[in-house]
Every structure is written in structure tokens, then in C-alpha cells.
Amino acid sequence: MAEQKKLRVGILGAGEVAQVIHLPTLTLLSSLFTLTSICDISAQTASHCAAKFHIPHHTTSPPELLTHPSVDVVFVLTSDEFHAPYTIAALRAGKHVFVEKPLTLSLPSAQSILDAEAAAPNCAKVFVGYMRRYAPSFVRAFRAEVQTIPRILYARVRDIIGPNAYFVGQSGTEPVRLADFPEGADAERRERVGALVQEAWEGREVTPERMAYTRFLGGLGSHDLSLMREALGGLPERVEAVAVHPPFYNALMTYRNRSAGKEAYAVVYESGVDDVPRFDAHVAVYGEKKSVEIRYDTPYVKGLPIVVVVEEKGEGGEKVRREVMSSYEDAYTAEMRELWGCLVEGRKCKTMVGDALEDLRLFDMMYEAYDGQKAGN
Known about the structure:
This protein is 39% helix and 25% strand. The protein has helices at residues 16-28, 43-52, 62-66, 83-92, 107-119, 136-147, 164-168, 185-200, 208-232, 331-344, 353-376; strands spanning 7-12, 33-39, 57-59, 73-76, 96-100, 126-129, 152-161, 238-245, 248-256, 264-273, 279-287, 290-296, 307-313, 319-324. Helix 4 (83-92) runs parallel beside helix 5 (107-119), helix 5 (107-119) packs antiparallel against helix 11 (353-376) and helix 9 packs across helix 11.
């Protein structure tokens, strides 16, 4: 029997998400992936991670990693403002790309990635890291249960969490934070962020509140809103209203059922970060005789269950409650298996660039609602 192909991975950005999530996950999936190169702006961080995870090559030069002959797929794990330029550079070098969500923060920036992918040598592809959508309980149980609701009456999308440091500190991964950054790095980052967010707001003034709103939607928001799109069948018909009170953000949206009557229903989105050590992330869908909810726990502690809770009216009129957990396999591991299948076996994958563009279109709908409310005050 022929040995299955291993993808050779280059890691671009060795910060918290690399050290806590991707490097351990890829190391455990040693039959599918092998780590061959790592790059970080901090030479000490790159060296530390190379030693800890037995990576043969490390550098502070992105072009060196992007053109490395022993790299098949580049993991872009940098801050948001570098996602587009590094993804495009990797595509031009004929490398596949895994880029953490958000793909980027503006539609023009996303379109430039789509154009680069279309012209990339070696049929290089971009896979966007929306790991919650690969959780076995979402793929196998939640979507199937929602399909049995003839008419959706209401849905809720919530992601209210405490500080990441609380969960990272209990992950057992012991990430390091080193600060041997080259002179001018912070200034370049601020300049890139400013230009990208300005592009997202299409020439309108980027106030501190607009900046915070954009960064929040690209960060925590893209997890929830991407999941919502798949669960409910695409973009909402309208964003009726938003509430922007950092660090909490809300939206009221109108969706329509896909059944014959096409009846409208409301979806409430509520999200924010406080200092209480909780992780309340869920999507709940309500019908006349049945509700279905998927509950996520922190991904920073490996193996915590993702549970689907079904409540429905029984034959005798009683409430029947069921809990379904499709697998103990964590969402990041399931996502990496899908990435391998996409790039090696040619499977069709759902979180590609075209799909990520829909998040940015939804962000624009939310920005328009925000501006409309500001103009009306």
C-alpha cells in the first residue's frame, strides 16, 4: 500500500494561535502534515518554536519562507493587516495557503486575493480557517436537526467570553511572548491597519469607534457570523439595526425561511468580551415545536465537548430534551483533516475565498446600518 502524501507546512507568524493551536495540532497529525519552516518577526520566537516543535528551518524573512522549496502550504497566522499581502505572495510562489480568519478586513482586499488565486501557478488554493464550521457536532448533528424544523421562527447567535489569557493559561501549551521586534515594526503595522480599515469604510472617516467595530467583527465576530451564514443558509435579507457599545456589539437581522411560504424571522446577534472567565458561544434556532442549539467551549483547551441540545414537544405534549455530541475530536483537528483532503485528495471545501467574501459583505451591511443610525440621531 502506497504511503499517503504528507503536506509540508511553513508557518508564517508564531504568535499565540500558532503556539497554542496550530503547531500542537499539526504535530499530532503527523501522518498528514510535517512542519518544515517557521517565520516570525521575532527571531527569538521563531528559534524557540523551531526547537520546541522540531522544525528544521526558521527565519525572520517572509520571502524566504514563502519561496522555500520544502513548503507545500503556507499557514498565514499573522495579524489581520498582513493576511492579504502574505497570502498573495504565497499564491504567486505557487504555494497553497491556509489563512486564519478573517481572510482580510475589506472587500477590495479580498478581491485581490481572489484574483491572485485565479492566476496562481500550481493551481494553488486558499483555505480560510473557520474552525467552528468543521466541528463534528455542527457538521453531523446541528445542521441535520435544523433541517427538520419546517419553519424557523427565531434564531440567536451569541459569543460572550472572558479573557483569552484565562483559557490559554490552562491549555498546557506554555506559549512564549517575546518582543525582539525590528525598529519600525509597530509603525508599519499601524499604517497597514489604518489603510485597510479606511478601505473597508470606503472613504468615510475612520473614528476610533469604527476602527474598534471593524477589528471586532474581523476577530470574534467572523467566527459567529460565518457559522450563522452556514446554519441559516446565507446572508440575511436585511440588517435592521446594530448596537455598538464597545466591548459589546449587537445586531438585529431579518432572514427568510427556505420553505414555500418564505416567511421572515428575526436573528439576534450578541457578542462581547468581559473579565468573567466564561465561554458562552452558541447558535440557537427555534421552530414551533422544536429548538436546536449548538454550544461551543473554548478551543484553547483541547478536547472540550461541543454539544447540540434539542428541545421539542413530545407526542404526549411533554418537553423532550436530548443532547448530542458527535465526536470528542476538536474542531481544529477536524478542520486540518478537511484541509488535507482539500489539497491532497481534491475534495470540495466550503471555507474558501469566495465564501469568506460573504462575511465582508455582511460586515458592509452592518456598517451601513451603523451609518444610517448615526445619520438619524
